[in-house]
Amino acid sequence: MVTLSCIKADIGGMVGHSSSHPDILNLGREELEQAKRRGLLIDYHVSHCGDDMFLIMTHDRGENNTEVHKLAWDTFVKGTELAKKLKLYGAGQDLLADAFSGNIRGAGPGSAEMEIEERPSEPIIVFMADKTSAGAFNLPLYKMFADPFNTPGLVIGEPLHQGFTFEIQDVQQHMQIRLNSPDEIYDMLVFIGAPNRYAVKRVVNRLTNEVGAVSSTDKLSLIAGRYVGKDDPTMIVRCQGNFPAVGEVLEPFTTPWIVEGWMRGSHHGPLMPVGLADAHPSRFDGPPRLVALGFQVADGKLIGPNDMFDDPGFDHVRDKANQIADFLRLHGPFEPHRLPLEEMEYTTMPAVAAKLADRWTPLEEAQPARA
Ligand code: F6R
Ligand code: MG
Ligand code: MG
Fold first, then answer.
1. Helices 66-85 and 22-37 sit at what angle, rounded to 10 degrees?
2. Is 278 in contact with 294 (CB distance < 8 Å)?
3. Mutation choice for ligand 1 from 285, 289, 339, CB with most ligand atoms inside 8 A
4. Which ligand has the minimum distance to the alpha carbon of residue 13?
5. Ligand 1 atom, smallest distance to 263 CA
């Protein structure tokens, strides 16, 4: 068995929240290299999307392993020290816990992990997002694993034909449910259609019980109880054979879906699939971005990556995303560009409401304005 762990955090941006400093990424590489030498990791790859650093690691310790989580935490802490020296923006932004307490979950960073029996050939894609939230992968995961118009393998691929089980988390109530596709898709869509509250954590092949996808569902605002930036989630998807083909896994991103995030984490905007060279959101701090790194896993080694969205086949998606961005921007501070009020609770909204509380009068008592 091999465990794939992707643990990520924003520990400082350059310039502003737009990208990462190469020294921080190199520090990450050095820390993980040492862990590989002392046998904790089999392999690693450090990358970034925007101001978030992603530690992609393989090992044989299983999910939620304290040592692996501590390695990620310590790497983020050391990276934060360097980010502070460089006066990078928002240094240590996602390290919400005062100290590591055994598991990275609930401490700020996001994590997606799966323990797998490595197949004779094991293609995987690691997705890295910036300027959006946990739950942003609900729609793409539905397309990949439940929609035959996206994934013909569901119809004509024998090992996919039984469908997939979706593990869905209620991120507010800390509950989870498993629902089966295709028989329960109408029930499932009631929940995953509300990605702010419900997030697909895991997808499993119903025939073989093998995990096919796992995403990070950590919600920064719920952990901190105030606005502290968006979650900028990650996701690992296994491809081919008993899972959707590489092209079926990427196909959902031919539409720039509207997601939460963008400027101040408080706007709806299009999710733009980009190659690494374009993974530095700038326009209105966005639009939200997604990078896909493809690897072949070989005895736990990460062979790759291939920069999957670095493909002219996605140029028109980026054009469309820019058109949608222009149109949404015209709305300025109006919904539905700006998030609905109930999702602005972690911004200035409660303070403005409190300041004006005693200036509201019941309609019946209101005096007509005098000329
Ligand atoms: C969104 C994001 C940025 C910041 C914005 C303000 O996730 O990171 O849009 O919210 O640049 O940043 P502060 O409040 O740090 O000045
Ligand atoms: Mg940031
Ligand atoms: Mg970010």
1. 150
2. no
3. 285
4. 2
5. 9
Residue 228 predicted with pLDDT over 80: no
Ligand 3 centre distance from Cα of residue 177 (Å): 29
Q: What is the pLDDT of residue 58?
A: 98
| 352 in a structural domain | no
Report the nearest atom of ligand 1 relative to the CA of 130: 7
Nearest protein Cα to ligand 1, atom 13: 264
Render pLDDT for 152-166 as a digit per residue (tens, 0 to 9).
999 999 999 999 999
Mean pLDDT in residue range 174-190: 97
Take atom 12 of ligand 1 and give the residue whose Cα is closest.
264
Domain assignment present for residue 354? The answer is no
Q: Which of 140-144, 233-237, 309-313, 349-353 is predicted with the least confidence, judged by mean pLDDT?
A: 349-353
Is the pLDDT at 88 greater than 80? The verdict is: yes
The one-letter code for the residue type at 341 is: L
SS3 304: strand
CA of 47 to the centre of ligand 2 (A): 15
Ligand 3: centre distance to CA 94 (Å)? 9
Is residue 348 pLDDT above 90, yes or no?
no
| Residue 110 pLDDT > 80 | yes
Task: Name the least confident of 64-73, 299-308, 329-338, 362-371.
Answer: 362-371
Place of tokens 């200036």: 359
DSSP string, 160-219: GTT-EEEEEEETTTTEEEEEETTTTHHHHHHHHT-TTTEEEEEEEETTT--EEEEE----
The residues that are catalytic are 10, 227, 230
- Structural domain harbouring 285: 2-339
Say if 47 falls within a structural domain.
yes
Nearest to 249 by CA among 191, 210, 294: 294
What residues sit around ligand 2, an ion, with C-beta below 5 angstroms?
A: 10, 13, 17, 51, 90, 93
Q: Whose CA is nearest to atom 6 of ligand 1?
A: 264
CA of 353 relative to ligand 1 center, distance in Å:
22
Structural domains in the chain (count):
1
The answer to whether residue 268 is domain-embedded is yes
Q: Return the pLDDT at 368.
A: 72
Q: What is residue 371's predicted lDDT score, i.e. its pLDDT?
A: 62
